[in-house]
């Protein structure tokens, strides 16, 4: 089993150590580079320092929003990307600080409309030059 632990304080350290001892594959994410270096020397090379981009693509808008907000505010992640299931939520995501809010519904709708518009134009030019 693979486990990601966020935060390399006392609890994160001991949790990661005990999980490793029990045979789990562990990645520990720590925002302080000096602390990460210390943890790597003790636990092995399992510690990552922060992240440049967090992408939240669960099937739940609220989970994606919270994940991106936590990444931005608590862990100072410079860029967040979220899947937005309900297109009406795109504006809310952007207002609340998500850098890129992608609605699969809107993307698919744009592709379908583009494809249909291309076929209508091709059909017209063949019958009415």
Question: What can be said about this structure in brief?
Answer:
This protein has 129 residues and is α/β, with parallel strands linked by helices. Helices cover 51% and strands 22% of the residues. The protein folds into 2 domains: 50 residues, Rossmann fold (3-Layer(aba) Sandwich), CATH 3.40.50.720; 78 residues, Rossmann fold.
Describe it for me?
With 129 residues, the protein is α/β, with parallel strands linked by helices. The chain contains 5 helices and 6 strands, in the order E-H-E-H-E-E-H-E-H-E-H. The longest helix is centred in the C-terminal third of the chain and has 24 residues, at 104-127. The termini are far apart.
Secondary-structure class = alpha/beta
Overall shape: it is elongated
Proportion of residues in helical segments: 40-55%
CATH topology name of the largest domain: Rossmann fold
Q: What is the number of helices?
A: 5
CATH architectural label of the largest domain: 3-Layer(aba) Sandwich
Low-confidence stretches: none
User: In CATH, what is the homologous superfamily of the largest domain?
Assistant: NAD(P)-binding Rossmann-like Domain
Indicate the proportion of strand residues.
15-25%
Sheet of most strands: 3 strands, parallel
